[in-house]
Write a structure and sequence with these properties.
By secondary structure, the protein is an alpha/beta fold. The chain has four helices and five strands. It is globular, with a radius of gyration of 17 Å.
């Protein structure tokens, strides 16, 4: 099964559209090695995108002020804090993972998050900062490398099973 690459953002908010631009660059160069989806949805609205996948990459803008704009930060779900929000509409990835677990749905076992530090995710109609554009290119390179690694692991596992002759065990 192909991995999911879910790219988030809002192009109306300048730098916040970084995830969308990553999706378009990947689609132009990646071929059919993954399912690349771009969306402006967030929170619990994203859960249905993940169902049925074993591996997923999430791409989004982040504005912490802790890194220079354009920095690509690789995160994993266990590094995220729960969102303190006034309603479920503002739930984040940790809450979505908990919900998926409680619903017992088929959800990715392997999730990587590529966050691009942005300069201004708030200005309506603003242009993408040139430093963020460089970060988009870097994110594309890192995502392609991750997808290639996953593909290699999948291929090796399948080959081991074939050599062993028993699809339920892995030859050592």
């Amino acid at each position: 099964m192909k991995p999911l690459v879910l790219c988030l953002g809002n192009e109306l908010l300048g730098d916040d559209g970084a995830g969308m631009l990553v999706a378009r660059k990947l689609k132009a160069t990646q071929g059919h090695g993954s399912d690349i989806i771009e969306t402006s949805l967030s929170g619990l609205s994203l859960i249905e995108y993940f169902i049925g996948y074993k591996q997923a990459i999430i791409v989004d803008a982040i504005h912490t002020g802790n890194h220079p704009p354009g920095t690509v930060i690789e995160l994993y779900p266990d590094q995220l804090r729960s969102v303190i929000a006034p309603s479920p509409h503002y739930a984040g990835l940790p809450e979505m993972l908990e919900l998926a677990k409680s619903l017992d749905v088929e959800f990715p076992e392997d999730i990587a998050i590529f966050a691009i530090e942005v300069a201004d995710p708030y200005t309506i109609g603003g242009a993408i900062d040139s430093r963020v554009e460089k970060g988009i290119d870097e994110a594309v390179i890192k995502i392609k490398a991750r997808l290639k690694r996953w593909q290699s692991l999948t291929f090796r596992t399948a080959a081991r099973k074939k050599i062993d002759g028993n699809p339920g065990t892995v030859a050592r």
